[in-house]
Amino acid sequence: MAFGALWRSLGAALAATSERSTILGVDEGSASVPAELALAAAPAAIDGITVVRLRRNLGHQRAIAVGLAYVFEKSDARSIVVMDADGEDEPADVPRLLARMRERGDGAVVFAERARRSESLAFRVFSQFYRFLHWLLVGRAARVGNFSAFPRRALNRLVVVS
After folding, report:
1. Contact in structure between 16 and 93 (CB atoms under 8 Å)
2. Are 31 and 13 in contact (CB under 8 A)?
3. Helices and strands, number each (H, E), in the chain
4. Which tens digits make up the pLDDT trace of 78-92?
5. Alpha carbon of 120 to those of 5, 60, 61: distances in Å?
6. If we measure between CA atoms, which residue out of 36, 37, 112, 125 comes closest to residue 81?
7. In terms of Cα–Cα distance, which of 11, 85, 81 is closest to 46?
8. Quick one: CA torsion of 26, 31, 37, 43, rounded to 10 degrees?
9. Taking the CA of residue 44 as centre, how many other CA atoms within 13 Å lie in the half-sphere pointing to its CB?
């Protein structure tokens, strides 16, 4: 199960630092083994794990929005990390993202940039086309994904955006 592997790897990465974490997983209506079964023994750096279950798959952007709204309403988290459980985002990079966010300060949002992709050739071609079109229309490169870290202060601004 991807989520189980993610939180175990994240716990190991955080254990090597002084970071502690509470994890919120957003289950986009999966039909797989219930996530609770994979949550038996969290690593020491993980204070808790909550899974929000959506009744159906709404797409990853809406799932992220639901997760952020949940964190805003139900948590007093000082820092938030958004990452996918598909194996593309490296849990070992989370401490680096958090450190960079703190270095930049003042409500900074820090995004990771993937050096490699494992998608199909068609996806990569259309992705490059999108980036070119974005550059043509906006005048700067679109190099942002979802793997990010930001302070609560930025979350306060983010959850009010439609």
Report:
1. no
2. no
3. 5, 5
4. 999 999 887 788 899
5. 23, 19, 21
6. 112
7. 11
8. -40
9. 4
